[in-house]
Design the sequence.
């Protein structure tokens, strides 16, 4: 009998719009001759599967099952396609661990660490990984004017102001001048109660997909991000306001530095499945500087990981089959 795959999507954050697009693209390329696949929508309105009549079937949260045609459908694996909470912060992974259902992402502890940009930066720095100088701020500890003074005392402009727990460049601002800080903080605090402020690193922007096949850590072709926007923001990522060059036009020496850094990061954070690591290649250090780790990277038609997979000469059906088989 074919095993049942739950393709989990939605979520509770502003990133849910990306999650739905990722799940749609993954579902399009799942090998349905090997597995039965059901898209499960998890949102603040409830946990549901939509049947062939487009009617909602509620998920039984006691054992993560659904009833279709008077039969109970239990799942052998969860394919994680929720960006942001409760997928990328580890909450669902802890729930699935309690039910002994395997999933395609990193564990609940490591997922929570990687979504928190401050923890990621701190752990990376302690393990010899280059990161930008940064400052964490709390919404309930001072107002934006106090935060502004703190930033100017400890960091050099320009800086990036971003929600500490989030992704898809939502709530991120590049600040060139001091009088822009308060508005940038206001935007970031709408997404999260914690904000990370990072010093700008001068250099070229790259992103690298990494996965494990059995015991081997595999680094996908490196992508350079070229955008006319202030940075690789939401529109650049999902509305074609950037040029993504895969494989990147870089020297073998640069490529080796990205590969070594990416494998080191994957091992340091004990990652599972496929992740994506964003970097700036620093002109001053002549080395990659890690910006963040995406433990559940986008899988939309415009996302980087599918581009890197195709650049390798693979097709997405085989790629998602490898991810599922590894997790099982």
Sequence:
């Amino acid at each position: 009998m074919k095993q049942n795959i739950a393709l989990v999507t939605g979520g509770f954050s502003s990133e849910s719009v990306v999650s739905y697009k990722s799940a749609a693209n993954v579902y399009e390329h799942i090998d349905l001759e090997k597995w039965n696949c059901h898209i499960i929508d998890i949102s603040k309105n409830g946990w549901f599967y939509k049947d062939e009549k487009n009617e909602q079937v509620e998920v039984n949260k006691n054992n993560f099952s659904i009833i279709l045609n008077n039969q109970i459908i239990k799942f052998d694996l969860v394919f994680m396609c929720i960006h942001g909470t409760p997928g990328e912060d580890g909450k669902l992974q802890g729930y699935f661990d309690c039910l002994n259902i395997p999933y395609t992402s990193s564990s609940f502890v490591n997922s929570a660490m990687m979504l928190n940009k401050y923890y990621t930066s701190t752990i990376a720095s302690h393990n010899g990984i280059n990161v930008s100088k940064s400052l964490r701020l709390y919404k309930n500890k001072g107002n934006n004017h106090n935060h502004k003074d703190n930033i100017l005392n400890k960091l050099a402009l320009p800086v990036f102001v971003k929600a500490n727990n989030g992704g898809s460049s939502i709530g991120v601002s590049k600040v060139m001048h001091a009088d822009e800080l308060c508005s940038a903080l206001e935007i970031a605090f709408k997404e999260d109660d914690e904000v990370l402020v990072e010093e700008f690193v001068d250099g070229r922007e790259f992103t690298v997909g990494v996965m494990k096949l059995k015991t081997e850590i595999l680094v996908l072709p490196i992508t350079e991000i070229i955008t006319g926007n202030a940075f690789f923001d939401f529109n650049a990522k999902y509305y074609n306001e950037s040029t993504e060059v895969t494989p990147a036009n870089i020297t073998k020496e640069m490529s080796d530095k990205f590969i070594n850094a990416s494998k080191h990061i994957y091992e340091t954070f004990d990652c599972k499945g496929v992740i994506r690591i964003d970097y700036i290649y620093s002109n001053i250090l002549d080395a990659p500087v890690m910006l963040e780790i995406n433990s559940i990277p986008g899988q939309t038609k415009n996302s980087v990981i599918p581009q890197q997979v195709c650049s390798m000469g693979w097709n997405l059906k085989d790629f998602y089959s490898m991810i599922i088989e590894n997790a099982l």
